[in-house]
Fold this sequence. Notes:
- By secondary structure, this protein is an alpha/beta fold.
- It has eight helices and ten strands.
- The strands form two sheets. Strands 3-2-1-9-10 form a five-stranded mixed β-sheet. Strands 4-5-6-8-7 form a five-stranded mixed β-sheet.
- β7 (162-166) and β8 form a beta hairpin.
- α7 (215-224) packs antiparallel against α8.
- The protein is globular and about 50 Å long.
Amino acid sequence: MTIAVISDIHGNLTALEAVLENAHERGIERIFCLGDLIGKGPNAIKSVERIRETCEVVLLGNWDDFITKKIESDEINWHQSQLAGEPMSYLRSLPFHYDFYMSGKYVRLFHASAKSVYHRVFPMRAPHDEKLAIFENTEHITPLESNITPDVVGFGDIHAALVEPIFPQKTLFNCGSVGNSLDIPQATYAILHGAYLSKEPAPFSIEIVRVPYDVEKEIAIAREMGLPNVEAYALELREAKYRGIPTKS
């Protein structure tokens, strides 16, 4: 069994379609999304629609929460105008995390950290105790069984893919970003290989996949649609240079 884990689409439909096509070519039928469906890119509503069509699990991201608030920003209001009505209700309904067993390992997925969709952790420079905290049960978490914590945690949010063993005997992975990658300017996602929903020990692995897509096509679509701040979006897609995103007020 293989599971594609995607995150941070950010309204980039061109990149999303490239990743979905790649997953289909690999014969992957089960796809989980770790949030941030919208924001930054131009195609909010179409991205939400495609995620709803193709993903078995969809989790809440910081942009998915942020976009449902009343914000005094022309750029944010532009994105909100695509999502009025039922799509906003859908984003508000998204769960915080998803836990399951795979090849005997207890796996937990969420957008950013166990503390909040707004609590950002960069494992490449975080101290060991901060990385261990990602595996803890918090007020936002309902574990599958009481008094246990996951062996494997997967998240999105930082737009930079990684797989890291965490002492003792835990694994942390980031699936990267589909639509707004900030380590390599290609659409990125992860694949979990193992026996889904099985508590029996079996082979298990995590694969990071980079998918080239037509960045210039996506930028042209953004210009045609009148995306505000399109030059910042173009810079991120072409060069993977971060411009910052809103934080919770």
